[in-house]
Design a protein that fits this description.
The chain has 628 residues and is an alpha/beta fold. The chain is 30% helix and 23% strand. The longest helix is centred in the first third of the chain and has 18 residues. It comes from Nitratidesulfovibrio vulgaris (strain ATCC 29579 / DSM 644 / CCUG 34227 / NCIMB 8303 / VKM B-1760 / Hildenborough).
Length: 628
């Protein structure tokens, strides 16, 4: 009896393969040749790429935009997506590059080696040399086309299922044709919901390219949240928490000695590059508006167009010191091109011309004739006290007691709803004892000699010196609160109990309350007060000796309508601005505007004794009474 058997190859073709995410496929079948770490692909090198790869083939997703820094490994991750498509879900592919030379180089150096270096993908090669040119690669079951932005002919007349638009912001414009981006996207129309489009680029300006996609097309934008390797708390890394020694300003020194570090916003632990890499490996993508994890958001909201934002400090290939050095390079040169490089290539943000809503001269116009340290005296008419309370705001700077210092302002607040206030003193304190002397060891006087003392102080505690600030506040409980700024929260001020010093099991004696401050609320309030003329009710007064540095820092931030938040441009100090925000929050916490102004007791008139006048006609005066 004849028995029919399928060959191994036939059985392999007919066998239904189990579903596999792209990130898993890449670790099994991708071999990287053109890289500083050649060899088999490992997701642990660029952990953020796994989520991007898997999201690319989610059933709801059609377009994937990645606003990235250079040296992030994202280009190789998208090659993984194409490799997965070749093996698992074939269809015509087109790569579009800024120019012809870049297209040919990528075909030769990256795409062909990707296919030839993978045992799985190599099986799809035809074996014919004619099928492997620098502008087209023919596989057994699908073609791969190479095109560039300056050639409409290369972009037209081809149905494309998988489209990769690489370095979108560098594309050349055309006077007679639609944009290369638009022409290429039209090639995917016939594939409808099966098509995938990747838009990858380092941003340049707000009005074009990848940033336009992120802000206008993307229905969901994801940020990568890391997890501290010390306290395991999740957080979004920001440039503001990258620190280096205060006394080092040479970018090459910071870079060569690897002096930069990152400070955890929860426990205050210091991360070096290795800690940063561990934090990234423990991280995950979260949607910017909902806060949902990547897959949960895709499954729940099913967006067709998604975006991913990837700054340089997340990349294994970019050290924290390299980020810091780029910033310091601009800080030393003050060259706008250096700042643009930092914004585009490290923050992965577009270059924008920063506008200042308040200039320094307008700030200094708020000065009155009081000397530094002088409190306004009682009202001249009746001697009614003008000042309800003195409040201080302190901004903590530096990484330890040897390199740290404190910026502070002391502001006097008047009575009632008008919220009129006067700057008494601003400056720098080098140590905690010096700060304590300024706040509570000194009495401030008005022109009549009346003494005033600081009623309440608020101190920023979210930095390198969190433990020290907590200890200082615990030692001066009732007179000062540690604070944490929040961009938005349900109430202007909220309190959170603290039982332990961060990162330890050591108890804070008597416990402590952390005051969380809605910075947007109080910054809006401060900006409004700065626009009040000095002679109008509710004015925001400065003393006669207010330094220019104060005025500069008070105009550092601007309000970004798109983000609905206050933004401080890179390289500008805003310490006094932060101090004044805390002073306003302190007056709000005290409820000064609801305090009833004491009334001066009216003074009794002294009666002048009357000199008796000799009566005429022998009649006694009325006051004589019955005297004998």
């Amino acid at each position: 009896m004849y028995r029919f058997n399928f060959s191994m190859a036939e059985r392999a073709v007919m066998r239904r393969r189990a579903p596999m995410p792209v990130s898993q496929w890449a670790e099994r079948h991708r071999v990287v040749a053109y890289s500083t770490i050649p060899g088999r692909w490992h997701n642990s090198i660029t952990p953020y790429s796994a989520g991007i790869m898997d999201a690319s083939f989610h059933e709801a997703v059609r377009k994937i935009g990645i606003c990235k820094c250079p040296q992030s490994g994202i280009t190789e991750a998208i090659h993984n997506c194409i490799g997965y498509a070749i093996d698992r879900s074939p269809g015509p592919v087109m790569y579009v590059y800024p120019d012809e030379l870049t297209a040919r180089e990528n075909a030769k150096d990256r795409i062909q080696p990707m296919i030839e270096g993978s045992p799985r993908l190599a099986t799809y090669l035809t074996g014919s040399a004619d099928d492997r040119s620098s502008l087209r690669i023919n596989l057994r079951h699908m073609p791969i086309f190479l095109a560039w932005s300056g050639s409409a002919a290369r972009l037209g007349n081809k149905p494309i299922r998988y489209l990769v638009l690489d370095e979108l912001d560098k594309y050349q414009g055309s006077r007679n044709e639609a944009s290369a981006e638009a022409l290429a996207e039209k090639r995917t129309i016939t594939w409808r919901h099966k098509a995938r489009i990747w838009k990858i680029s380092t941003p340049t300006v707000e009005s074009t390219g990848i940033w336009q996609y992120m802000t206008r097309e993307a229905q969901a934008v994801f940020d990568f949240h890391v997890r501290c390797p010390h306290c395991a708390m999740e957080q979004l890394m920001t440039f503001d928490r990258i620190r280096w020694p205060e006394d080092v300003r040479d970018p090459e020194d910071v870079l060569s000695r690897q002096l930069a570090e990152y400070v955890c916003e929860h426990c205050g632990s210091v991360w070096h590059d290795g800690d940063r890499d561990r934090a990234v490996r423990l991280g995950l993508w979260r949607e910017r508006s909902t806060g949902l994890e990547l897959k949960a958001h895709l499954d729940t909201h099913r967006p067709a167009n998604v975006g991913f934002h990837l700054p340089a400090w997340l990349s294994y290939f970019v050290s924290l010191s390299k980020v810091a050095a780029s910033f310091l390079r601009w800080n030393a040169s003050k060259n706008q091109e250096d700042l643009k490089d930092f914004c585009n290539n490290f923050k992965a943000e577009p270059w924008r011309v920063y506008r200042m809503d308040r200039d320094e001269d307008r700030i200094l116009a708020l000065c009155d004739d009081r000397p530094r340290g002088m409190v306004p005296g009682p009202l001249a008419e009746d001697g009614t006290p003008r000042i309800a309370a003195l409040v201080a705001g302190i901004d903590t700077q530096g990484s330890d007691e040897h390199r740290g210092y404190f910026r502070y302002v002391i502001r006097a607040f008047g009575w009632g709803q008008e919220d009129e206030s006067w700057l008494i003193q601003c400056g720098t304190a080098p140590t905690f004892p010096a700060l304590a002397e300024i706040l509570w060891g000194s009495a401030y006087r008005d022109g009549h000699g009346n003494e005033y003392r600081v009623r309440l102080a608020l101190q920023d505690s979210m930095g390198h010196r969190t433990k020290e600030v907590y200890a200082f506040c615990a030692a001066n409980k009732g007179r000062i609160f540690p604070t944490q700024g929040k961009q938005h929260q349900a109430a202007p001020l909220t309190y959170s109990p603290l039982e332990y010093y961060p990162g330890t099991q050591r108890r804070i004696p008597g416990g402590l309350r952390l005051l969380k401050v809605d910075t947007t609320f109080f910054k809006n309030d401060l900006a409004a007060k700065l626009s009040i003329a000095p002679e109008d009710p509710g004015a925001f007064h400065l003393h006669h000796d207010t330094p220019l540095e104060y005025a500069r820092e008070m105009v550092a931030e601007y309000y970004d309508e798109q983000k609905q938040a206050w933004v401080c441009p890179s390289g500008r100090d805003n310490h006094y601005w932060d101090c004044e925000v805390l002073a306003l929050a302190g007056a709000f916490a005290l409820g000064v505007r609801n305090w009833k102004q004491p009334q001066q007791e009216p003074k009794m008139k002294k009666e002048t004794p009357q000199v008796p006048v000799s009566p005429t006609g022998g009649v006694r005066p009325s006051w004589w009474g019955g005297a004998r």
